Amino acid sequence: MADGKQGWTCLLVLICVCITVGTVIPVGYAFGVMNAPSAFIRSWIMESVLERYSSRLGDSQMTIIMSTVVSIFLIGGMLGAPFAPIFSARLGRRGILTLSGLLLLVSCICQLFCRMANSIEMLLLGRLIGGLAAALIYATQPMYLVELAPAELSGSVGVFTCIGLTGGIVLGQVFSFDFLLGTEKLWPYALSGSAIFVLIGLAPIFWFPESPRFLMSQGRREKARVTLMRLRRDEGRVNAEMAEFEVSSTDEGQVTMKQVLCNSKLKLPLFIVCSFHFVQQMSGISAIWFYSIEIFTQSGFTAAVAMWLNFALGLLNFISALMGPWLMRSFNRRLMMTISCLCSAIFLVLLVVGLELMSTIHEFSFTCIAFLSLYIITFNMGLGPTPYFIGSEIFETASRPSAMALGSFFNWLANFVLNMIFPTLNSATGPFVFLLCVVFCAYGFLLTYRYLPETRNRDAKDVAQLMENGFKSKIK
After folding, report:
1. Nearest to 264 by CA among 473, 468, 475
2. What does 170-190 look like in DSSP terms, one character per residue?
3. Average pLDDT over residues 89-107
4. Which helix (H) or strand (E) holds 249?
5. What is the pTM of this model?
6. Superfamily name and number for 254-476
7. Distance between CA 179 and CA 182 in Å, rounded?
8. The Major facilitator superfamily (MFS) profile domain covers which part of the protein (predicted)?
9. DSSP of 185-198, one letter per residue?
10. Mean pLDDT of 255-263
């Protein structure tokens, strides 16, 4: 790692904020916007099918179509993830984010005009394209920011992915409220509202620099030096980092996804990245919202107040994520990840107990609200942000795009699996379904404790050497 500490610069802050607003917030928005207007969407779908096919949908058919509208975004994510390293090698980090922005705009256009065209297929296409764009963003945005930042800020910039997702969910909820766009006439505008953030956030993207590590991998040494000088404004620091890049570019060539999968030295870091992404989703952060409204109504709140309290819980999720840059800069990755996994498991167990007793002892409903809040806070201490950027800290430049893409695929896969199995398991077991999430939190704790080396303030090349012996590696 280059000598000397370097803090935030105005340019780096601007890049982090704009890229997050233009790419990640629209992804979170797509998750948060669907709930409130779902009744209007169901009604429109029934009318459209009746008008076009002279057929009336049954309840089961309607449920399948609505499930498809929601889940096709996740399917797009799984389909798009394998293409991320291919586009990254051809277009660069900045180029693939630009492509993602264009795909997001196409997605918004499809969703905006689907009712005007009376086309359910256009709505599905828009959600699918949005998922494809989101997959490219998951794999590229944290990598781009980490490669622009000095090593000591890699964790701080990496958590902007989590901040963008949680912030986007909150914004999606706000835009879909019935006093804004969540009405029978305006719901297409609610679904496509993320276009505003794409246009604002990515407006200056061609003024932003390309990743200097990517430029070096392409043999553009002078361009990489100019970019680093613009970012660091310290010639000594630039010379030190350029020397590190020279060594990396000499040792590494372009690495395909197949080569990453077949390389025994990359087995452990790849396993960690994919497992962290899978654990993040299977830990129950998405499923937790399934119970939140019920808990609030059981506590004696009206349905309208419960909706606002649910929004407040989403706001807590976002505020907790905002603590990420400070936490990642101040504390070690291993410490934050182990605490996050352990505490998340504990609060989920307490939540199961509270939910089971809530029907007979009214006061437990208030403790469930507390357990929900504490779970969200502890989740954002490590489980929330770490999976998005850990690949940039344990993989070297050549293998990084493929590793990040594979991690992204497992994130989408886990999200899809949980969304498919959670309602069924919940019907069969009730609140005990969260014990499955506890198991995955425990797995994340054990994996971190046994195999994850400390990556804070360390160069990826040094960290990679610690894991070359696979599961026999001795972690330091």
Report:
1. 468
2. HHHHHHTSTTTT-STTTHHHH
3. 94
4. helix 235-251
5. 0.89
6. MFS general substrate transporter like domains (1.20.1250.20)
7. 7
8. 16-456
9. TTHHHHHTTTHHHH
10. 84
